[in-house]
Amino acid sequence: MLFPELQITQTKSPTSRARGKLLPDLTALLHVTSLQAAAKTTCDVAMIYHSMYGHVVKLASSLQAGMTSVSGMKASDFKVQETLNSDLLKALHAPPRPNLPIATPDVLKDAGGMLLGISTRFGTLPAQVKGRFDACGDL
Fold first, then answer.
1. Which parts of 20-104 fold into alpha helices (H)?
2. What parts of the sequence cross the membrane (predicted)?
3. Domain extent at residue 84
């Protein structure tokens, strides 16, 4: 087991078999989260993500569906402020962004939990995400 205290096992997904990688099974993690949520009346999770081409948005949608199926769980979507101008986004063939509220330091402070969806750019955080977290120094 990868994390015995959370009872998370590794399984191979159809897409990971081709790459030979193992992906964690998040079912146990969501179960632990639901137990923690049961102790409260509700648990509001802020799902904050940045997605240039929409892949992270698809992952976030699946996670949100799983979380909201648990009694007492509420998931709210937020996006990271885009810093690239629209001409550059067109040149990069980026699809239109979902119309979501922008994550602010107050969102982080008020959330009962956080799920971050962050793509990488050359092995590091995109500048948009780094800028958002750098602005949270007062928290």
1. 27-39, 55-68, 86-91
2. none
3. 42-134
Mean pLDDT by 10 residues, the chain (139 residues): 46 48 54 55 85 85 86 87 87 87 86 85 80 76
Distance CA 127, CA 96 (A): 19
CA distance 100 to 84: 17
Q: For residue 54, is it within any domain? A: yes
In this structure, what token pair is assigned to residue 110?
């008020």
Specify whether the CB–CB gap between 2 and 24 falls below 8 A.
yes
Q: Which residue has the tokens 């096992």?
A: 9
Count how many domains the chain has: 2
Q: What pTM did the predictor assign?
A: 0.61
Same domain, 79 and 126: yes
